[in-house]
Each structure stands twice: as structure tokens, then as C-alpha cells.
Amino acid sequence: MSASRAVRASNALLRAVSAPSAARATKPVALLRESRRHFAASARTMSSFYQWEPECPSVKTEIPGPKAKAAIAELDEVFDTRSLNMLTDYAKSSGNYIADADGNVLLDVYAQIASIPIGYNNPALLKAARSDEMVNGLINRPALGNFPPTDWAHVLKSGILKVAPKGLNQVFTAMAGSDANETAYKAAFMWRRQKERGGAHVEFTDEEMSSAMNNKTPGASELSIMSFRTGFHGRLFGSLSTTRSKPIHKLDIPAFDWPQATFPQLKYPLDKHVAENAAAEKAALDEVEHLILNYHIPPCAVIVEPIQSEGGDNHASAAFFRGLREVTQKHGVLMIVDEVQTGVGATGRFWAHEHWDLPTPPDMVTFSKKAQTAGYYFGNPELRPNKPYRQFNTWMGDPARALLFRAIVDEVERLDLVKNTARVGDYLYERLEKLAAKYPGQFDNLRGKGMGTFIAFDNPRRDEFLARAKKLGVNVGGSGQAAVRLRPMLIFQEKHADILLETLEKIARSW
């Protein structure tokens, strides 16, 4: 089945789903029969959640091929292409497969840096995109702080807030992950200063008002946000000061003098290094507490990723995160969980921090990527600023993207995709363990057991490894210095895992 024909099939399925109720009873069945005949789909393909993707990768040329090279050269005249991974033909991409200008179709387990939740050209999202609500949100894009639409509360409650982490019943919507983190930082600073003043009812002094205009204290607070070494929280000014993954992200950019703690450097396999790993986590928590008490610019919040993604896919135990929650509460410091990359089902739970069984929820949880929108959840009403316009910008998010997230949530629930990710992740991890034993040195420090498909391993020739995978029809990503990270979509199934595993073994066997 070609990718372009698969997209046409998805459109046909969409038309059937959108048909009047009298026709819906028979059309989908007839259409699926036609699809079987037209594409000669095998039993293996028909086990997919959707019947609109290819059966397997197809590599026809080098990547990039001649058409892509010409298009890249044209693009480079007006746009920096030095970080380009693959020039993509989105009209021909479908499901778990990404296509390029030369007709190459790859199994995509990188998924736009972990941001595609339910596949390219998904019929449910096509339906949402063609709705009157979507058209209204796109062509009359509201300045949400000043002119929210009449149905904005309903859109939030039926989508973004429908899947809010336990105990967090409010949301501030934003544009991207960096934006979500920076607005969460602002909320933390305002919350802390409000407490120091004596409450929301206490007015600002004239000195605070005037000094703020000159970037001086007391109007500009002397507070900080603590982050962890090898963490990543975005590339805007405030978020960049908490990003510690690679120097190239930070060079030449002015930064705040904010503290960083050591993220536990666990040794694998975990069951063979229990005592060492427990000691590393205790040392990290002791360092966090020391910085809270002694850093010369006091932290009002600690931000942490459930899994440090860009910094090399670094994991820690649930006990570590429970300890972090205990330390932050003990000293009146907020805990912000950055779920930009881990959120929306990727780890076998809708939110990765659900694995921790925290006694009390985090103070804020930031999100983006697979949500296709962004923002932060919170529960404490004191985290809502005491005055209007303190947490504000023109757009304050995007209703169109919120509508897409709602459609994603509905589809995740309809197909039980979080459970699917947990099951497929276990299947994939078990087989990767066998590859690691069979090919020593090629799948080092395998990690992510029990964390859905959020799996990674180290390879000493990582960049060459990724290039070889692409030549064999699989698009894989890396992070840190040596990590190969797997970031498939929520519709990734065992049959896709088999293709991936076969490709990885071909590479390992050839070295």
C-alpha cells in the first residue's frame, strides 16, 4: 500500500465516520471491505488501529535523494537547514510512517521529537480540523486573556482539563513547552513574593513599583529556580537558564545565576546496582536540600523531568521523586514537573509522574509536544496571580490546538492507547534485553523498563548507528552523548516493534 493511497483511504474513512447516522451503520463496514480488496492488506496489517498506513518501510534512494537535495538547496537560501533531519512530504506520510520527496517511507520512532501522538494524517484529527469549531478558532483567533470565546470553558473542560493530573484542576494555556515552563516560573516567583508580603491582599509598595522598572530589587525579586544537571527545559531566556543538557544550547546567551543539583546517575542493570543507585539518589536529594538552604539566590521552585530526555534519557526511581517532593514541601519550595516530553501516554501512564505514587500532587505540571498545545496545570488558587495582566500575553495559547488536543484525548480513550503503550513497551523492552545480551556493547545501559515505549540505550557509535537505521528504513533519534532514544507514537504496536527490532539487529550484526 502506497503512502499517498493510504492518505486517500484515511480521507474516505473520515467521510464515512462523518456521514449522516443512517448511512454510518453500513458505510464503514463496506469501506473496510473495499480497503481490504484495494490494498490486499494482510492479517498483520489489519491488526493496526487504523488501516491507512503502509505495511513496512520502503527505501528507494539515498536519504536525502535527488528531489530532496534540490528542495533543501532551495530552502537553504531563505531558511537555516543545518539541523535538518529529513525533508518530509507530510501529504504522503501516514500512521507510524514518515515519507520524503523521493518516495522513501520510513518507520518513524522519533515522531517529530516525541510530539506526534496518534499518527500522521490521523482520520480523527482530520475530522476535528474540518469542524466549524476549528475554522472559527483559526480565522478568528482570539486574544484569550481579553476576548475568550463563549465556549472556551467547555473546550478546556472537555479536553485539556479532562486529563488534568490528579489534584490539579486549573490550567494556564501557552504556546510551546519553553513558554509553558517560563510562565510556570513566573507563577512561582509571584507566589513566593506574595507569601513574603503577607498575602494577596497586601498592595505593592511605591519602591517595589519604581525599582521593578529599573530591573532592581525589591521590585525585581532575588529568587531562583533550581534545575538538575543534564536537564532540558527549553530555549527561551528563563527556561534556558534551567537547561543544562548541551553547551550549544546556551553559548553567548545571558543567563541567570540559578542553582543546579546533580541528577542521579544510575547504573544498569538496576537490579545489579541497587545499593549504589540508592546512595546516588540519596546524595542527590541531600544536595537539593543543601542548595535550598544555602544557595545565595534562594530557589522558590525546583523543576524536574520524570526522565531527562535531551540530556541523555536519564532515569531515576519513584523513591527519588517521592523524596524530592518531601524535601520541597519541608522547605516551602514549589515542585514543578516538566512533562513536555514524557506526558500524554508515552510512558504507559497518561502522565509519567503517575508512576511515582506521590502522597501529594506536584504544585505545577507543564505540558506540550504530544498534546499539540501547551501550558501548565496547577491546583493551589494562590498560584493564580493577585492582579490581572501579571500572567498575560496576547494569545495565551491557541484554541485551535486545544481542540486538537481534545480530539487526541478522545482517540486515546477510545482505543485505550495508554494501555497499548504499556503493553507494547514491555514487549519491546524484553526483546531489546535479548539483543543486548546477544550483541555486547551495542545496547549498553538499556533503560525504560516498565515505562511504556520511553526506552533508550547507549551505543558507542551512536551517530553512525542512527544513520544506518535510516538507510534501512527506520527513523530513530538520539540524545545526550551516546543515547539512542525511542519515541514512537501511541499507535505503535508489536508489528512495528518487530520491524524496529529486526533493523536494530541488522545493524548490530554488521558491526
UniProtKB/TrEMBL annotation:
One GO term (biological process): gamma-aminobutyric acid catabolic process
Catalysed reactions, as listed in the record: 4-aminobutanoate + 2-oxoglutarate = succinate semialdehyde + L-glutamate
Signal peptide range in chain numbering: none
Q: What is its EC number?
A: 2.6.1.19
Group of enzyme by EC: transferase
The cross-references to Pfam families, in alphabetical order and at most eight, read: Aminotran_3 (PF00202)
Q: Which Gene3D superfamilies match?
A: Aspartate Aminotransferase, domain 1 (3.90.1150.10), Type I PLP-dependent aspartate aminotransferase-like (Major domain) (3.40.640.10)
Cellular component aspect of the GO annotation: mitochondrion
The superkingdom of the source organism is: Eukaryota
Keyword line: Aminotransferase, Pyridoxal phosphate, Transferase
Instruction: Cite a single GO MF annotation.
Output: pyridoxal phosphate binding
The record's SUPFAM superfamilies line, in alphabetical order, gives: PLP-dependent transferases (SSF53383)
- Kindly list the cofactors needed: pyridoxal 5'-phosphate
Q: Which family does it belong to?
A: Belongs to the class-III pyridoxal-phosphate-dependent aminotransferase family.
Q: What is this protein called?
A: 4-aminobutyrate aminotransferase
Q: Which organism is it from?
A: Trichocladium antarcticum
